[in-house]
Amino acid sequence: MSDQKYSTIHYHNYLEIDKLLSIQNTRSAALGDAAHDETLFIIMHQVYELWFKQIMTELDSVCILFREEQVNEDNMNTVLLRLKRISTIVSLMVEQIHVMETLTPLDFLDFRDYLFPASGFQSMQFRMIESTLGLREEDRMTYHGKSYKIVFNEEQKARLEGIESGGSLFELVERWLERTPFLRFEGFDFLSSYKEAVDRMLHKEQASISGSEYLDERMKAMRLKMLGDSNSYFKHVLSKEEHERMMAEGECRLSYEATIAALLINLYRDKPILNIPFNLLTELMNIDELLTTWRYRHAQMVMRMIGNKIGTGGSSGHDYLAATAEKHKIFKDLHNISSLLIPRSELPDLPEGVERNLGFYFSGKK
Fold first, then answer.
1. Region 75-98: what's the mean pLDDT?
2. 45 CB burial (10 A radius; 0-12, 13-18, 19+)
3. Which of 69, 92, 308, 354 has a beta carbon 3.0–4.6 Å from 350's, enabling a disulfide?
4. What is the spatial distance between Cα 44 and Cα 123, in angstroms, rounded to a whole number?
5. Does the annotation place 112 within a ligand binding site?
């Protein structure tokens, strides 16, 4: 075995510290009017780009594992751990905004004019993260009415288009859910059992409202209307046609089969074999929520720094960033599963064979 494999290296050289510390080049100093706080501004954004690189490293590895036609359950814990790492990184990104906020508006004005037309909007890595997760171009805020890709060169555009056509994590998870075997156990019709349980639950709640001694008739009528029935927000899982109508109108995105699978996983998450799938779906929601939080905090920071001024990249600044926080959500369908949940006490009893199969390792392989 070659000794080269175990050759020693100094910390300084391993991390290429000299190179790393040589790239905080302030434009204010280069143009003869050095601003003290520009170094902080540069370091903060370079740190974000390093975190973006790590997020893409994790996302790429997760996508590779999901692209297997038959996802190996041995890999699911690895997927979960890597998604948790992404959540932890984004959570740290949110916290790092506090450091940026030590830069006061007047301090920022000392060098802001030197930034034009550079903008965080031009971060290629962040756009790659969004596209890899599953943010589609048609769901994005436009940039002055044009594609978000307009700020990138032809090579970068081709790379983004390759990500969009290669199958996002959203699409890979959707296909994984559609292959869930637990919906088709012999002797167990999940949807029929679920509908019966929903009707029982709603009947009990309707009876409780109608029989209340503390509500007047107007309040009873209002609460009964709010409660609805199995034809209200439960309808799109009880009717495939309704779900497909909602998909066609952009009200939901996840396929009918994948939605049913996600619902079953959420309802029976305490079963050993469904625990990791449940935590995996939860982690995808965590990432979505944390990215939304990061966007909101970024928007608030921009408002604090420049008020209602136009951003350096030409966007509307705060208003644009705040709007992306609301619009650029990817896994909304998983969040909406909560509206379809019923109490554990109302869950349909599982046949003995189904209960047994959900209690130990089930590969789904023949």
1. 95
2. middle
3. 354
4. 14
5. yes
Whole-model pTM: value is 0.88
* CATH top-level class of 35-186+236-340: mainly alpha
Going by the DSSP 8-state scheme, the letter that residue 53 receives in this structure is H
Q: Read off the tokens for 119.
A: 């903008």
Listed in sequence order, the residues at least 6 apart from 196 whose beta carbon sits closer than 8 Å to its beta carbon are: 348
Task: Specify whether the CB–CB gap between 59 and 284 falls below 8 A.
Answer: no
What are 135's two structure tokens? 């943010």
Q: Which of the two residues, 100 and 307, has the higher pLDDT score?
A: 100
Which residue from 180, 148, 179, 171 is spatially nearest to 320, judged by alpha carbons? 148
Return the residue matching tokens 């903008």.
Answer: 119
d(CA 284, CA 281): 5
Q: Buried b vs exposed e over 99-137: b needs ≥16 C-beta within 10 Å? A: ebeebeeebbebbbebbeeebebebbebbbbbbbbbbee
Q: Under a CB-based contact definition with an 8 Å cutoff, are residues 140 and 315 in contact?
A: no
Looking at per-residue pLDDT, the higher value among 113 and 43 belongs to 43
pLDDT tens digits, residue range 302-340?
A: 888 887 665 554 445 677 888 888 889 999 999 999 989
Separation CA 150–CA 139 (nearest Å): 16
How far is the C-alpha of 71 from the C-alpha of 6, rounded, in Å? 36
Model confidence at 121, pLDDT cuts 50, 70, 90, reads confident
| Cα radius of gyration rounded to whole Å, the chain | 25
Q: Is 312 annotated as a binding residue?
A: yes
| 3 state SS of 143 | strand
